[in-house]
Amino acid sequence: MLVYRLEHRNLINQDSGMPCGPYNPVYEGFTEQRQGVLAWTVTLLCDYSSDTEHLPPTRDPLLGRKIRSSEVCAFDSEESLRKWFGPFVARLERFGFHISCYNVPDDYVRLGANGQCVFTSRRGRRVLETYKGEEVD
Q1: pLDDT on residue 36
Q2: Residue 114 and residue 3: Cα distance in Å, rounded?
Q3: How remote is the C-alpha of 51 from its chain's centroid?
């Protein structure tokens, strides 16, 4: 199954080994001012995504209201991702985030509401980075 993530180009989440997503950014390498602006952007994003159309995995009944430590969040299509993040995609791109597509065996993907899903990070293979528009070997 192809799944889509909004993730940072360079910053890695040490727990999952995957690039950081916008809800768990790592601020290494940012100036103090850019850290503040990114933190403010994430705060606005959390406010924007706090309704029933933006349930986090811990509130999504289709995902069992949990995300396992081996899993990361994604979406079932790029359209679902863009609908979820709305105007924040462009804002986060200025901080080095981009959309990546992963190919994940179906057995390692759990589907939630509104296009959200989670997948076992070590089972995903990145096949496309949309900020470059190039396939990844």
Answers
A1: 73
A2: 14
A3: 18
- And the tokens for 61? 């009944």
Cα–Cα distance between 11 and 27 in angstroms, integer? 8
Q: How many residues does the chain have?
A: 137
Cα-based torsion angle of the residue sequence 22, 26, 28, 32 in order, rounded to the nearest 10 degrees? 70
Amino acid letter for position 10: N
End-to-end distance of the chain based on CA atoms, in angstroms? 18
For 100, residues 6+ apart whose C-beta sits below 8 A from its C-beta are: 4, 5, 7, 19, 126, 128, 129, 130
Q: For the full predicted model, state whether its pTM sits above 0.85.
A: no
